[in-house]
Amino acid sequence: MEANKGKGEQGMQIPGGQMDRPVSFHFMESMLPKVVKRRVHALKRLQVQCAHIEAKFYEEVHELERKYAALYQPMFEKRRDVVTGTVEPTDAECEWHSDREEEEELAEQVKEKASIEDAKKEEAKPEEDPKGIPEFWLTIFKSVDMLSDMLQEHDEAILKHLKDIQVKFSEPGQPMSFTLEFHFEPNGYFNNAVLTKVYKMKSEPDATEPFSFEGPEIIDCEGCQIDWHKGKDVTVKTIKKKQKHKGRGTVRTVTKQVPNDSFFNFFNPIKASPEGEMDEDSEFTLATDFEIGHFFRERIVPRAVLYFTGEALEDDESFEEEEMEEGDEEEQDDEGDDDDDDEGDTNKEQPQPAECKQQ
Amino acid sequence: MEANKGKGEQGMQIPGGQMDRPVSFHFMESMLPKVVKRRVHALKRLQVQCAHIEAKFYEEVHELERKYAALYQPMFEKRRDVVTGTVEPTDAECEWHSDREEEEELAEQVKEKASIEDAKKEEAKPEEDPKGIPEFWLTIFKSVDMLSDMLQEHDEAILKHLKDIQVKFSEPGQPMSFTLEFHFEPNGYFNNAVLTKVYKMKSEPDATEPFSFEGPEIIDCEGCQIDWHKGKDVTVKTIKKKQKHKGRGTVRTVTKQVPNDSFFNFFNPIKASPEGEMDEDSEFTLATDFEIGHFFRERIVPRAVLYFTGEALEDDESFEEEEMEEGDEEEQDDEGDDDDDDEGDTNKEQPQPAECKQQ
C-alpha cells in the first residue's frame, strides 16, 4: 500500500487503477521525460546482461553440487547399508546424546499406554531381531504430506522393498538435469532393480521475459517403464462392465483396465507440452510433480533420517504448505497461519540468507 | 494431517497429543526396538557429517558469488554512471522493445488525464534537461514496502544524493560477511562519501542443533558513524521541556535531544546479544534489520532498475508479505491470499529449483 506513496500527488494515478499494482509504475515509467526514459532503457539492457551472467553462475553452482554429491556419497552408501542391514554400525558409530529431559518427559506421558502396547507386542513378537531399519523409506513416505498424498494402501507393501533413493546430476556439458533413482530389493511386484525419474532443467533467461529469471527451473520430466509381474501392476485396475447389445438386447460382461491411483504413477508423468496447450488440471498436476521431484532432491534424499524421525517435518512446514491447497487446508491453516502472529515465531521470519536454498 | 496416517492404528498415539506434531514421531523413535534405535543413531551421526560438508559447500558458493560480483561489476558501474548522468548511453545502448500492446492500452487509459498533467508541467517546466535518472534510488526506496516503512519525509531530500549502492563480499579466509555501501554525492547533510553496513554471517552447523543448519545465516551487523553537519542530523530531534524547581517553584525550559524516526537509523543498529538476553521487541527489530540487509543484497542491488520501474515488485510479493504484519496487512491480504486460489497462479507454485535462491 505504501508502494506508490507520493506518486498520487504528482498526478500519476491511473483513473480507477489500483495504486499498488505494477501497472501504475509502468505508467510512471512512460511519464518520464524522454531523455530519462531512454537512460532507463539503457539500464534495462544492462539488466539483461546481468541475467545471462546469473545463468552462468547457476551453472557453476550445479557443478559445485555435482562435486559435493561425490563428497556426500560415502555417507549415503553407509546409510543405505545400515538401513538394509548389510552393515551393523559399531558402538562408536551409534553414540548419540539425545535430549534427556525431553525423552524423560515423553516417557512419562506415554508410560501407561506404552506398557499396554508393549504387552500386546510381547504376545505378537513379530520379529525378535529386525534387519536394518525396517520400513525406513515407507515411514518417510507416510510422514511427509507431499508423499503420503500420493500413497495408496496397495503401494505400501511394495515400498517396503525400497532400499535407497539417490540423486544423480547431469554430466558437465550435458543439458542440466537430475535423476531420482529408486533402488528396490528383489520383490514380487516388478523386475526393475531401479526405477528412475529424470527432471530436465533450464538455466537461461527467457528471450521474451529475461527479468523473470530466478535460477534453474524444472521444465520437463520423464519416468520409466515398470516391468510389472503379471497381475501385480497397481497403477491399473480391472473393472467389469455390462454391455447391452443394441439390436439383440443380449447382455455381456466385459473386463476393462482403467488407471488406478498409486504412487507408482510418479514414473509415468504427463508430458509437458511446449506452449500453453495444456489445460489447467494438467498444468497443476505437472507443477505438483515438479515440486515433488524438487523436494526429493533438496530435502528427502539429503536428510532422510530426519524425515524418518520426524525432526525435519517441523522445519518444512512452509515448504509443505504449498501442497495443502487441495487437501485438508483448513485444519492446517488454523495452526500455521495463526502461529505467524505469535511473537515466538519471529525467528522464523529472520532471513536465512542461504545462498543456496530456496524455499 | 496425513502425516501420521496409519500410526494411530499401531497404538503410537500419545494420549491427548496432536497427531501431526513431530513430538509423536519422537515418540515413535523411542518406541523402536533397541537394536533399530541404535542404527537410527548411526544415521544421525552420518547426518551431522553431511551438515558439515554442506557448510563447506556454502562457503564455496560464497566464493562463487565473489567471483561473479567481479563479473557484474562493469554493468553496475555503467548503471551508476547512467544514473548520475556521468555517461550518456548511445542510441544502440538504449534500444528497447517494449510490449507495444500494453503500452498502447495504458496510453489510452490515461490519455485524457495525462494531457491535463502535461499541460500543468509545461507551465511549471522544472528542468528541461534532467541529469541522469533523477531520484533513481529514492524512487526505489519509496516503491519497496520494506524500505518505505523506514523512510521519513526528512530522509527524502538526503536520499536524492544517493548515487549508488554496492555489495562487497568478505575476502577468502576472512569470516563470512557482506557489506552494503551507500555512496553519496557531496551534500549539505553529512561529510561521509560512503555509509556502510556490514552483515556478519555464519556458515556452520550449530553444535547443539546441527540439523537446523540450512546455509549461511546473518548473525550480527554493524553500522557506521555518520558525520552530520551541525543541526542536520535527522536521527535526533530537539524537544523543549519545562522543568519546575522543587524548592523555589521557578520554571525553566530545557532542550533535550531524543531519537527520531529515520532511515538513517539503519546505520546505528541495536547490538545482537549472545544468548537470548534480548527482549522480544529488540529481537524483532534485529530480525527485520537482517531481512532488509538480505533484501538489499539479494534483490535491490542486483536488479535496481526493475524496482525503479516497478517490474520487480510483482515477483517479490511473497518476499514482502513477511513484512506486512505490522502494517496495512488486511488490505494486502485481500489480494495476496485470494490470488493463491486462482487457477492462473498455478505457475507460481511450480518449484523453481534455483539452487541458489531463497525466498
UniProtKB/TrEMBL annotation, chains A, B:
Pfam families in the cross-refs: NAP (PF00956)
UniProt keywords, alphabetically: Nucleus
Acidic residues bias spans: 312-344
Stretches that traverse the bilayer: none
Gene Ontology CC terms: nucleus
Subcellular location: Nucleus
Domain of life the protein comes from: Eukaryota
Principal place of residence: nucleus
Chain positions covered by the region annotation Disordered: 91-130, 312-359
Compositional bias per record (Basic and acidic residues), positions renumbered to this chain: 108-130
PANTHER family recorded: TESTIS-SPECIFIC Y-ENCODED PROTEIN
Protein name (database record): Nucleosome assembly protein 1-like 4a
Upper classification of the organism: Eukaryota, Metazoa, Chordata, Craniata, Vertebrata
